[in-house]
Write a structure and sequence with these properties.
The complex is a heterodimer. By secondary structure, chain A is of the alpha/beta class. In chain A, 32% of the residues lie in helices and 13% in strands. Chain A starts with 48 loop residues before the first helix and ends in a 9-residue tail after the last helix. Chain B has helices at 53-57, 82-86; strands at 27-28, 39-43, 63-65, 70-72, 92-96.
């Protein structure tokens, strides 16, 4: 199979391609010259959110950098399904690092480009990507170092809430009460423990780096706009993308986009962008949905809805979502107030 | 020639890449995951308005454009059903492969 160009010409509605907009305002996905950075021969599960998110993120980065992008990739689902040696699904220069050091590898690439004088003409940019395990747990030291040195790297984290590739173990991005292979739904506190784990975008903001953003795969236009904005800036930038995982979350494969949308609409996953540690814009929620809508379709929360529903746990999760809505100002203001 | 035959992307010697530093993947993934599928998307051509939502949300990019509707490349479609769920016109239905 040789290079796979995009086969489709013009896209439609506002959700997607915005045919009604002038050509220069259309998004990358509507473009006839999209790069199609991951080809369709990859081995991702049915309904994989990560495959979708990675393609749009890297396509947008390629568009913003005129096709001059080098990607470093941590070990994780994304690396495993896209590159079983000697095959690769990437149609861009791409390097696989260890699990924990992708930020350091990307730093090295950026430094080499600087020494070779390739950062100005042509403007070669570096993108590092990893899953939530390789970012929040294992690669956290290297990532923090990259933020602190303010290296010219865009780091993209695809957060599916666990080590899905090795059999759904808990990571520090696993949400509370979720069942994984290492946090079984047994005992007094079934599932993952409340009060543990970390929200990495907030930690990245605390590093005072030029750009931090979160996005979901439900709103691809927003995701693209954020990657494009990040590529305009220099220095360390961080984008955290929520990618539902049908395998690990125990959802139906056709519900991937719906789950991402519900995560945003319930306030469990705040979608915002921040520059130099200050939240600049949020994706508002018109009418927050109860978290139960989000939890119920997922088998990893099945223990909350057994014969005796865990009302207190659900209320606790609702409180966390409400706290997110208050903290980031996610609720859209009504007209006239 | 089987469909799993590989096609070289570039010549390592020609590209002057040292081949003893690390493994270099030289084959663009030839896998056709269409045989994973248990459900198959079918488009109702009358209902399709070419809004391209399926094209955008398809994680494997198996959606192809035709003159007045979208169709699916069944060699790569994994049958996840995201397109059928997201289609605003409800023009896509998933049917079992066995039938």
């Amino acid at each position: 199979m040789s290079f796979q160009p995009v086969k489709f010409y013009q896209t439609g509605t506002f959700t997607v391609g915005n045919r009604l907009l002038p050509p220069e305002e259309r998004s990358v996905q509507a473009s006839t010259k999209r790069f199609n950075s991951i080809n369709s021969g990859h081995r991702a599960c049915q309904g994989c959110g990560e495959a979708l998110g990675a393609r749009y993120a890297i396509d947008a980065a390629m568009e913003a950098a005129d096709g001059q992008v080098i990607a470093a990739n941590a070990t994780g689902c994304l690396e495993v399904f896209s590159t079983p040696y000697p095959e690769t699904s990437w149609q861009i220069p791409w390097i696989h690092s260890l699990f924990g050091n992708t930020a350091a590898v990307a730093t090295g690439i950026a430094a080499a480009l600087k020494v070779k004088g390739l950062t100005q003409n042509p403007k070669t940019r570096v993108v590092a990507q990893g899953g939530d395990g390789g970012t929040t747990d294992i690669g956290f030291g290297c990532l923090s170092g990259m933020f602190e040195r303010n290296d010219d790297v865009l780091y993209i984290c695809y957060d599916n809430g666990g080590y899905m590739n090795t059999g759904v173990q808990r990571s520090s991005a696993t949400p509370p009460a979720a069942r994984t292979a290492t946090t079984m739904a047994v005992g007094l506190e079934p599932g993952n423990v409340f009060g543990q784990g970390k929200f990495l975008p907030a930690i990245a903001m605390a590093h005072n780096i030029p750009y931090v953003a979160t996005a979901t795969v439900a709103d691809l236009r927003d995701l693209e706009a954020k990657v494009t904005r990040a590529m305009e800036l220099r220095g360390a930038r961080y984008i955290h993308i929520l990618v539902p995982c049908p395998l690990g979350w125990g959802t139906a494969s056709h519900d991937t986009i719906k789950m991402a949308r519900l995560a945003k609409e319930t306030g469990i996953f705040p979608v915002f962008e921040a520059e130099y540690g200050e939240v600049k814009a949020v994706l508002a929620i018109r009418r927050p949905l109860p978290v139960e809508d989000y939890l119920r379709p997922q088998k990893r929360y099945a223990h909350l809805f057994g014969k005796t529903p865990a009302v207190e746990t659900i209320a606790h999760i609702q409180a966390l979502a409400d706290k997110n809505i208050r903290k980031y100002g996610l609720q859209a203001r009504k007209e006239g107030h | 020639m089987s469909r799993h035959d590989s096609y070289p992307l570039f010549d390592l010697a020609k590209a002057n890449v040292p081949d003893d530093l690390c493994p270099v993947a030289t084959v663009v993934s030839p896998m056709l995951p269409g045989d994973w599928r248990s459900m198959r998307p079918v488009v109702n051509r009358d209902k399709c308005v070419k809004c391209a939502v399926c094209w955008l949300y398809c994680p494997v990019q198996c959606v192809e454009e035709h003159a007045a509707w979208f169709d699916f490349n069944l060699k790569t479609c994994k049958g996840c059903g995201i397109c059928a769920n997201e289609c605003p016109q409800r023009a896509i239905t998933m049917i079992a492969e066995a039938t």
